Structure formats: structure tokens, C-alpha cells
From TrEMBL:
Cofactors: Mn(2+)
Organism lineage string: Eukaryota, Fungi, Dikarya, Ascomycota, Pezizomycotina
Enzyme Commission number(s): 3.4.11.9
Record protein name field: Xaa-Pro aminopeptidase
Superkingdom, taxonomy of origin: Eukaryota
EC class of the enzyme, as a word: hydrolase
Purpose of the protein: Catalyzes the removal of a penultimate prolyl residue from the N-termini of peptides.
Family matches, as SMART domains: AMP_N (SM01011)
Length: 462
């Protein structure tokens, strides 16, 4: 994969452009909106019954408008002048001996894309001054994310909904810098997936594979995982969000690895499935080939304006054709599709938006959806150019899900239990890449190998 992203990442995170975009979105709904956007970052919180802080994770709404990953900070943006102000904690002499000097005002101004940096002790006077500049102005903040000591008394109007909605809309389409961070997160994560494959034959426990993945990420500067890694051996691969990562691997056919690192808070989300021995069994390869085809064809359908529901439906059609060819499903493909029987083997959505969160905002899911194919989709509607989506089809053999289908009068007639019995030990296969939607197609950001012959060769050579 090209590492051209490094040149882009030498610049500053484009916080001011993001703030302008958010204000423009607010004004699309309320043309005369004026005043101040006020956001707070994550405040330091101590662990219960302990003198150490909880692990820090910056609020993503705050980060989107600041690019600042420091704790205990605040932000104000004057909508009229387009002036941005970052507030950082003042120096606490008692803390310096333990933690060293914090970032200074001059350092923060050089580091972040803001117009001014002040101390958090200046928040209330600054807000009061900004409010006085324009009578009847509003303050736009996020509900339940304003400290008790911060007062909005001078503002005639207070809006605790619009800015969050606007940021969620803005975050769907990524700019060049954001894409570069995700390219780097994918680059590092792909190297880590390679390290897992190289460890496959010698690992005795799932946790050893997790250690191989995390070690590569940390060694390349990506200390934070985008989510808790999934390292699922054998039948555990049929558990979609398996998190134990501790079971022995002896006697198991395959391992499913769903893991991705963060770079500057932006996520990679990659899944690979591979044989521990270095050679797929016939049954494992049967299922892998179906999922591989599902993913390839779906990626080929992605472009700006494509309806995600249709692409997801296509994945089911490919799965049905493949399972019919193996004899796991029987009957008419169209009838099976209409009955939604394939949801027994592919129960989740094809993918989701990706960005500052793994399951990123703006996807408009509908958990009240009555159609079993679409109930668990985290992404509905048409995908715009500049959005980043995951493409993660899968076929799973989970007894808890499939057996009720076998016992059901509608679905049972389409499933051959005798053929199905040959596939339980496969567990599940999922293949997941991250793609950037473009005007006429998409750009795959993920370089981790997935062609079955390459997987077998790498494991066998290790």
C-alpha cells in the first residue's frame, strides 16, 4: 500500500474547516442561527476506590472541532467571526512533580488548528464577552456535556441539540486529512494481521494471537485499539462479538480475527479468517470462497449514491447461491430470499460507516425494522462520495441461531440438516475491508492479505 498519507499527516488536523462545515449545516436548518458553539472535551475521572484516572478517551464531537487529544479542555467558536478558541488547563504546580509540565499556550497554538488558546479559568468571562457582542445570540452545546461551573447566563437562547446533529452529519464525509489517518490506521493494522498469520501455527491460545496483533500496532505507534479485538478459534467464530480471546486452539480448524488500531482517534476495522494448520479443509474453503465472493461483488457495487440496502441484499443473494451449491440450502433461490432464511447464516449487516468511531455516526439504523434482513444494519440509505464504509459479509454456523430455523415450518424446508452437520466446526467466516466511496467506485484502504492461496502460503512458511 502506498504511504502517501504520511505527507498529508505532516499538516494540522483541519479543525477550523470542520467547525465551518458544522455551522453551515446548522444554518441549512436555521438560516439566521448566530452565536457561539461551545464544547467540552473529556474530563479526568478517577477510578472508583483508586488514586489513578480511568483510561482517557477523547469525546469525538470535541475532537472533530479541535483536533485536540488533551484532557480537561474546552472549546468556543464564534459563528459570526469564525474565530475558534481552545481552552487548556492552567499549570498546577502540585501536579508538575508527578506528570511534568503540561502543554503551554504557545505549544497548543502551534499544534492545533485554532485561532486562540486560553486557560480554562477564562471560559466564563470569554463566553460572557462573546454573548455581549451580539444581543439575542444563542449558545450551541451538547446536552449533559457541560460542566456545572460553566454558565450561559448572558445568552438569550440555548440549543442543546443542533450542534450534535450537525457534527454527526458532517462526520459522514471525510476530508483528505481524515482519509490519511484512516489509511495509516489500516496500514498498521494490516501489518498486525500479517503478524497474526505468522504466529498461527505456533500459538497455543487465542491470547497469543491477540498479543501478536497488539504488539505490531504498538511498535508502529498505534497504542490504542479502535475496539476490543476479537480472536475467535473454532466454533467461537460464530459469536459475532466474541471477546474472551483466551481459549486453547488445539484441535480447531480456523481462527477469525476482527481487530483494528486507531491513528489520531480514527479507526481501522479489519476481519480475516484463516486455517490454523496453514491449509483450509474442504468445508472451510467452501465457506471461505462464498464469503470472499460476497465481499468482492459487493465492493464492486459501491459508488457514490449507491443504496446500501441493495448492496446488502446482493450479499444475501450470493450467500444463497453458494449455500445452495453446497447443499446446505435446498429449494428455489428466490423463495429462500423472500423467506429470509439466509439470515440464519448471515444475521448481521454488510457494514457501517467508519471514522472517529468504529460504528461511526450518520448511518441512520432502524432497530424497529420488521424485515429480518435489514433490522441489524448500522447503515441505511445512499452512501455519499467521501464516506468510508466497512464491507464485512460473513457466513456463520451458530447453533443458537440456526436450530430455531431448522425447527421452523417456513425455514426448515430450505435447510438440509445432514449436509449442515459437516460444517459446524468451521464456526464462521467473515472478511472485512474498509473502503473510501468515490464518485465512480471505491478505494480499498485495507491491504491485509485475504486471497486464500496467499493466506495458506504465509502461514505455511512461518
Amino acid at each position: 500500500m502506498s504511504t502517501d498519507f504520511e505527507a498529508v499527516l505532516k499538516g494540522k488536523y483541519p479543525a477550523k474547516a470542520h467547525a465551518k462545515r458544522v455551522v453551515d449545516i446548522i444554518r441549512q436548518k436555521t438560516p439566521d442561527a448566530a452565536g457561539v458553539v461551545y464544547l467540552e472535551g473529556r474530563m479526568t475521572k478517577m477510578q472508583e476506590d483508586n488514586d489513578s484516572p480511568e483510561p482517557f478517551r477523547q469525546r469525538r464531537y470535541f475532537y472533530y472541532l479541535t483536533g485536540c487529544n488533551l484532557a480537561d479542555c474546552c472549546f468556543a467558536y464564534d459563528m459570526e467571526s469564525s474565530k475558534s478558541i481552545l481552552f487548556i488547563p492552567p499549570i498546577d504546580p502540585d501536579d508538575v512533580i508527578w506528570s511534568g509540565l503540561p502543554v503551554s499556550i504557545d505549544e497548543a497554538l502551534a499544534r492545533y488548528d485554532v485561532d486562540e488558546v486560553k486557560y480554562t479559568t477564562d471560559v466564563n468571562p470569554t463566553l460572557a464577552h462573546l454573548a455581549s457582542q451580539k444581543p439575542k445570540s444563542a449558545v450551541f452545546a451538547i446536552a449533559n456535556q457541560v460542566s456545572d461551573n460553566v454558565t450561559f447566563l448572558e445568552f438569550d437562547n440555548k440549543d442543546f441539540a443542533a450542534v450534535k446533529e450537525a457534527i454527526e452529519t458532517a462526520r459522514v464525509v471525510k476530508d483528505e486529512y481524515e482519509v490519511a489517518t484512516m489509511r495509516k490506521a489500516n496500514h498498521i493494522s494490516s501489518l498486525a494481521h500479517k503478524a497474526v498469520l505468522q504466529r498461527a501455527k505456533s500459538a497455543a491460545y487465542e491470547r497469543e494471537l491477540e498479543a501478536a496483533f497488539v504488539e505490531r500496532c504498538v511498535a508502529h505507534g498505534a497504542k490504542e485499539m479502535a475496539y476490543h479485538p476479537i480472536l475467535a478459534g473454532g466454533r467461537a467464530a460464530a459469536t459475532l462479538h466474541y471477546v474472551d480471546n483466551n481459549a486453547p486452539l488445539k484441535g480447531k480448524l480456523n481462527v477469525l480475527v476482527d481487530a483494528g488500531a486507531e491513528w489520531e482517534n480514527y479507526a481501522a476495522d479489519i476481519t480475516r479468517t484463516f486455517p490454523l494448520s496453514g491449509k483450509f479443509t474442504k468445508e472451510s474453503r467452501d465457506i471461505y470462497d462464498i464469503v470472499f465472493r460476497m465481499q468482492q461483488e459487493c465492493i464492486g457495487l459501491i459508488k457514490a449514491g449507491a443504496l446500501w440496502d441493495d448492496i446488502h441484499l446482493h450479499a444475501h443473494k450470493v450467500a444463497i447461491d453458494g449455500l445452495l451449491a453446497l447443499g446446505i440450502l435446498k429449494g428455489d433461490a428466490k423463495e429462500i430470499l423472500e423467506a429470509r432464511t439466509s439470515a440464519a447464516f448471515f444475521p448481521h449487516g454488510l457494514g457501517h460507516y467508519l471514522g472517529l468511531d468504529t460504528h461511526d455516526v450518520g448511518g441512520n439504523p432502524n432497530r424497529q425494522e420488521k424485515d429480518a434482513f435489514f433490522r441489524y444494519l448500522r447503515l441505511r440509505g445512499r452512501v455519499p462520495a467521501g464516506s468510508v464504509v466497512t464491507v464485512e459479509p460473513g457466513v456463520y454456523f451458530c447453533e443458537f441461531i440456526i436450530k430455531p430455523y431448522l425447527d421452523d415450518a417456513v425455514h426448515g424446508k430450505y435447510i438440509d440438516a445432514a449436509v449442515l452437520d459437516k460444517y459446524w466446526e468451521v464456526g464462521g467466516v467473515r472478511i472485512e475491508d474498509n473502503v473510501l466511496v468515490t464518485g465512480d467506485g471505491c478505494d480499498n484502504l485495507t491491504s491485509a492479505i485475504k486471497e486464500p492461496g496467499e493466506i495458506e502460503a504465509l502461514i505455511s512458511a512461518s
